[in-house]
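Structure ticket #2291
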Amino acid sequence: MTPSEASTVGVLIVDDDPLVRAGLAMMLGGAPDLRVVAEAGDGTEVIPLVDRHGPEVVLMDVRMPVMDGLAATEALRARRHAPEVIVLTTFDADEHVLRALRAGAAGFLLKDTPPDEIVDAVRRVARGNPVLSPAVTRRLIARVAESGQDRRRAHARGRIALLNGREREVAVAVGHGRSNAQIGAVLHLSVPTVKTHVSSILTKLDLNNRVQIALLVHDAGLLDDHEPG
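Resolution: structure written out below.
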């Protein structure tokens, strides 16, 4: 890798439609700080290509013929030092998207998202920022009918019980879509203290990002009460 390549964000494009891959490659290739390191037409190719090229971000289609994007995301995000994953979908209320988020995807994009927004999303995810706010996550959850709610709620509450009182308050505030500054104002904490609590929550619960915190808080039923503040 040349010095100029090392300063750019490597992206792996995964989609079974060659035209979609070509369009995404052209779109991302026009950004000076991004580079497409490889393309895949099925989820089975993801891990070998990640091992070979080391991308920072994977754009992952959901529906593919042999291994779908959900299974590929789960397999990839279970590994240490895995790249971030952005799920590509044609539906914003797709139950598969929700499962991908639970697996650790950093967010999702509709395939008809404007090109500049897709480029910006890749940049944001590479910096560690989800491209899906907790508030949007809650709307997605509300629109998807899921089974096993009671079992999932009991499991989520058991995990939340690992947190101390202050961490639980911060987790609920994350679930309500508040920024660190907003959480600090509501709970009378400094922003660095909020960041410390968020990091502790992620570590204790073995989560990847704030979206997963929001999902877990939702599953536990802690957003059912009136939003604080």
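Closing remark: Strands lie at 9-14, 34-40, 57-61, 84-89, 107-110.
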